[in-house]
Amino acid sequence: MKCVSIDLDGTLLDDHHQISEANRNVIQKLKDHHIDVILNTGRQYADVIKVDGVKELELPIFCLNGSMMYDETGNLLYETQISIDLYQTLLKALQQLEVGILVYTNQGGFPVTLPMLRGKSWDEIQALFDQQDYEAILHLKDVKIYKLIAVVDETQLEKIDRVKEALKKHDTISFSSSFPNNCEITSSEAQKGKAIRRYENLRKLTFDEVYSFGDGGNDVTQFEVSTRSFAMENAPEEIKKRASDITKSNNEDGVAFAIEEILKLV
Fold first, then answer.
1. pTM for this predicted structure
2. pLDDT score of 69
């Protein structure tokens, strides 16, 4: 085992959005064995480091599905973005499909970022979308757009299928779902699997073996570059089918359980 790439929400974090003691301990054990550990998430950096205990882990963090890559000290290693023209094209298409839209930029998320929707009713969420001026984002000084997320109420999942169908014609983007009711859209260079390979090149490393953990559609590309891939028990069935292994749920220390079993073999 040379590298372990771990998703955050629904994987390393439990349903209370916390890192368990068992998961913290196993990450430290990996570091003690000189194994690279990476947090590979759809979240933006500011939302990642707010999580209790993340800073103390001192890990490289790949954000926005690989759109931005930071080293263990918080230095930016790489970024890729969506062009202004493409943003306007995507915005028009998503608005026609009548879905909520989150926009991630170098100046924050508009109207908010995904974690900030937790606990809100759909009426409250819809009000945020209705109040947002998406064209005004383009007038922010030196704005960079990293990711868009289409979001729908959980009773309207068929809209996400329509979003994905509409996006297929754009060959310069990647899109996947971190949850069934969303579709995350980034540059085609921003994929979790590509980020792992890019990190190897940037650091002049070779990972003979990569182990990855995840629970969503945006984890599939890291599964594809992994020696062994672990879907969490709480992952949708279609994601479990794309992994080589299934581990316990995020509420049962599934990451720690699988790694401890692997370390026994090592």
1. 0.93
2. 98
